Amino acid sequence: MSTWYVLTTNNPKHAKAHLEQWNITVEENQKRFGDFALEKPIDSFIPYTAIDATVYEPDVLTEKLSIRSALYRYLFVQGELVDVKSLISRVNAQSEDRLFFLLVDQDNKESRATIRPSDLEALIKICSSGEYTIDLPLSVSDLKVGSEIHLPSAPFESDNTTCKIVDVVPKKNGAYKVQLELTLFNIPFQRLFVTLHDVPSDTRFSEIVGNAQKKLVDIFSRKVNDKQTEATRLKDEGTLREILQDCTMPFPPGAMHRHFLALMLICAQMLGDVQTKERLKQQVLQELSAIARLRESKASTDARAYLHVAMYIATREPKYREQARAYIHEHHPASPYLQKLVSTCAKREALKFMGDKANKPK
Question: What was the pLDDT predicted at 116?
């Protein structure tokens, strides 16, 4: 894949016209000469010409005009280096417009600035909406307005970027909405929003899991036993959604996070949230694989039983039911929540069997 280069220009509208003419000429040459054509197309993103400045919301329009002004002289092109050099030479020789490579300091020497596809994609989103939102499981204990922050696993993580904290707003579940000023190649962006999560202590996490277990098992039992009125059904659905909100919370290390994953998967299944369920199923399967590589212990077998029960509820695959039953017979777990989940699953199977038997043609 060709590299995305950062160029500067004194006239972005004319630069767009030059790029369009380049690609028209390349297409004509490729039709005439086929594989013998020397030049290749150049893809581009020109923020100044791409940003829609016809929106009517005053705040959004102000932000978009601010971004467009900051990006006025920049354009991003993807192509072979020899073609980009040829384009620059042609434009600078034929008109008063100017194109240059943006040079940045790298290892104490100047080099051509490039941008990764993921960074460019995020930049395009900023240009189209005026903001860009990402979730990061970072500690927020030392966040201070005015200090700088590094984004270790998100777009704009390269050495060419810095992020300064503009505002910090507490949210639910230990999360904070942080407004950042992002500087990319000396271009300031004021409306980069990041949601940061405070990792809970082991004690606090155990309380969260314990409360979620009790609520979810009670709801599951009511649903199987057909003891939900319309009012309780709506209330239970709201409770499940509150529990599922916690699945964005980062897990502290330890076996308890596997119980938490199991609960979240059951919760997603009961809510019919297919996308979240599929994502959690993959995480549960990864944890089951990790447990299989561990030395056998009570903690690992308990966690495996929770995960098997959750997978059975989410998939109805008999292999998970049999594995959970085998664990119950062998280990006689003390956990009332796990026992109730298993017994409720068994009752659901018995009810299904009786229903199938009654509906079977004679």
Answer: 82
The two tokens of residue 52 are 């829609």
The pLDDT tens digits for 235-274 are: 888 888 877 776 555 555 555 677 778 888 888 888 888 8
Residues in CB range of 87: below 8 A, 6 or more apart: 18, 19, 22, 42, 77, 79, 99
Q: Each residue of 305-337: pLDDT tens digit?
A: 878 888 888 888 888 878 777 776 776 665 666
Q: In what order do the strands lie in the sheet with 161-170?
A: 132-136, 187-197, 175-184, 161-170, 148-149
For residue 266, give the nearest of 175, 342, 355, 352 by alpha carbon. 342
- The bridge status of strand 187-197 relative to strand 132-136 is parallel
Query: In the beta sheet, which residues pair with residue 170?
Result: 176
For residues 287 and 258, give the distance between their C-alpha atoms in angstroms, rounded to a whole number. Answer: 7
How many whole angstroms from its chain centre is CA 143?
22
